[in-house]
Specification:
The structure holds two protein chains of two kinds. By secondary structure, chain A is mostly helical. Chain A has a domain at about 180-330. Chain A is about 65% helix and about 5% strand. Chain A has helices at about 1-10, 15-20, 30-50, 95-110, 115-130, 145-170, 180-210, 210-215, 220-235, 245-250, 255-270, 280-300, 305-315, 315-330; strands at about 80-85, 85-90. In chain A, helix 7 crosses helix 13 and helix 10 crosses helix 11. The radius of gyration of chain A is 24 Å and the shape is flat. Chain B has two domains: about 5-50, no CATH class; about 65-180, no CATH class. Chain B has helices at about 5-20, 25-35, 35-40, 80, 85-105, 115-135, and strands at about 45, 50, 65-70, 75, 145-155, 160-170. In chain B, strand 1 and strand 2 form a beta hairpin. In chain B, helix 5 (about 85-105) packs across helix 6. The radius of gyration of chain B is 24 Å and the shape is elongated. The chains are: A mainly alpha, B alpha+beta. At the A-B interface, helix 5, helix 6, helix 7, helix 9 and helix 10 of A face helix 2, strand 1, strand 2, strand 3 and strand 4 of B.
């Protein structure tokens, strides 16, 4: 038995297994250049979630904060007079918000004045997307981006508060050894991403009592429905029949369909493992991209902002590229 | 009742968990998943929190979708005129049927088949009026009369995917619209 253990210990894959098992589910040290790249890329993603204008004059089906506040002032039909060098300029609320967000995103990307810039971006994101979702149909495409912003804002405000409190009681706040605000910034950005996937997985279990896995071949109906909806949105005949092949395959091969579709849900349920270490973040991230690409092909459903977020915070290519270069130089 | 040392150990584990950095992520996950129970009025959606209910309950059932038609029954590209996809039109129907159920003290059901043809037509007419207004607000008004159709996809007895569709509501063009140009539709 001990001989076998010795052989297993010396196996070629053991360093990989050890590396995979080395994690703590806690924030890890990060380089400032790494987070700078993340902020710049994520600022570009956030900017894309802000619409240029709103042709919605009312919020007939209020969602979120729209149930408390009237957000119809966002309608592009409302113009506000703005005087600049003696010239009257009519501007819409969306234009003002976009200007504030653009400036705040520059600060965000640079890493300056985050306790001011981040809450502004997050509040704008919540307000704008809430109004969009208060038109009778819920769109989940930008939810992850706003959730990441919420988590990042809490991190930045929390540490700003800790620093202020430390100064007030003459006991300066110190981060644990090797960590910085950016360690928590990255950790909770990954946490927001992982949380969103776990919620999606849990809802499937809670709603069906676990029968989702067995009934998954009936996703074929959803696939056809999505194709029909895609066609009737634009009357583009090229979309017809493209998804039907997958739907028929699911119904004709139910066990294989169960195996493949259940894999996606299991990946969602265990997405939290991304917080274990950089290695698991990479693995879960790669799995999520594969999952989204498959959904894109089979159901023609795109979640590009989710994918961008996963690439930036979980896969984090710049880090792995830098590590590979350092190791190559070391050899 | 649990032995004292078990309770103490349980409390220690709980304190450890609460202090762990992963705890806020766990709280966020649980709260969002059960948001519909915490705040029933939210129906599980309180932006940016959601329980992501899409494709959460696949089963052998009739699936419905809604699409727009011209007055003569030919399909109409909803996106070109309203910026809404057919998926959003369906969600509008759902929101409107929820409002109808609430106003009439009825128990709401996700599928519209629980509604009588007359009620479906009434809800459909409201949605069409909303879409007509939306198309006018964004300066891409519908070219004439419009109608709302309901398509149904189902698995037949021999295991094949079948579908059917029928018009459920109509909306006549206002006279002022005739002078407005129509946006180009995809062929």
């Amino acid at each position: 038995m001990s001989a076998l253990t010795e052989i297993a210990k010396r196996a070629w894959y053991m360093p990989w297994v050890k590396r995979l098992c080395a994690g703590t589910f806690r924030p890890a040290p990060v380089a400032s250049w790494e987070v700078l790249i993340m902020r710049v890329l994520f600022a570009c993603v956030v900017w894309q979630t802000f619409p240029e204008n709103f042709a919605y004059a009312e919020q007939k089906y209020p969602n979120g904060i729209a149930r408390i506040f009237d957000l119809t002032w966002l309608w592009s039909g409302h113009e506000y007079s703005f005087s600049w060098m003696g010239i009257e300029n009519p501007v819409t609320a969306t234009q003002i918000i976009r200007l504030v967000v653009a400036i705040s995103l520059l600060f965000y990307a640079a890493g300056f004045l985050l306790p001011i810039a981040l809450p502004l971006i997050t509040a704008a994101s919540i307000i704008v997307r809430t109004y969009y979702n208060s038109q009778g149909s819920i769109h989940h495409g930008c939810q992850m981006v706003t959730t990441i912003l919420v988590f990042q804002t809490v991190v930045v405000m929390w540490f700003a508060g800790r620093r202020l409190y430390g100064r007030a009681v003459a006991k300066p706040f110190r981060f644990p050894e090797g960590l910085s605000q950016w360690s928590y910034f990255l950790y909770y950005s990954q946490g927001a991403i992982a949380g969103c996937y776990v919620i999606a997985g849990l809802t499937k279990i809670v709603r069906t009592g676990g029968s989702w896995f067995w009934n998954s071949p009936y996703m074929a109906l959803e696939v056809i429905k999505t194709e029909k909806q895609e066609f009737y949105s634009t009357l583009d005949h090229s979309v017809l029949g493209t998804q039907a092949v997958y739907a028929e395959w699911m119904l004709n091969n139910p066990n294989l369909a169960r195996l493949l579709l259940s894999g996606g849900v299991i990946l969602e349920l265990f997405a939290i493992i991304a917080l274990f270490s950089r290695n698991t973040a990479l693995m879960i991230g790669a799995g999520m991209i594969l999952f989204h690409r498959s959904v894109d092909i089979v159901m023609n459903l795109h979640f590009r902002f989710n994918e961008y977020s996963v690439w930036i915070f979980c896969i984090n290519l710049p880090f792995w590229a830098a590590l590979a270069m350092r190791q190559a130089r070391g050899k | 009742m649990l032995p004292t040392h078990w309770r103490e150990r349980g409390l220690q584990i709980l304190i450890k968990l609460v202090k762990h950095p992963i705890f806020p992520v766990i709280v966020f996950t649980i709260l969002s998943t059960f948001l519909y129970k915490i705040d029933p009025g939210s129906k599980g959606e309180f932006y940016p929190f959601s329980n992501y209910p899409m494709y959460a309950n696949p089963r052998e059932r009739d699936l419905e979708y809604f699409f727009l038609e011209h007055g003569d029954g030919t399909p109409l590209a909803s996106f070109a005129y309203t910026g809404y996809t057919a998926s959003r039109v369906k969600k509008l129907m759902r929101s409107e049927s929820m409002a109808y159920a609430k106003a009439n003290g009825l128990k709401w059901n996700k599928k519209s088949s629980w509604l009588t043809d007359e009620v479906q037509a009434e809800i459909g007419t409201t949605v069409l009026a909303h879409l007509r207004k939306r198309s006018q607000d964004r300066a891409t008004p519908f070219p004439g009369d419009i109608a709302l159709a309901r398509g149904i996809i189902f698995v037949s007895e021999d295991g094949m995917l079948e579908e059917s569709a029928a018009t459920i509501a109509r909306n006549a063009a206002p006279l002022t619209n005739e002078s407005n140009p129509a946006p180009a539709e995809n062929p």
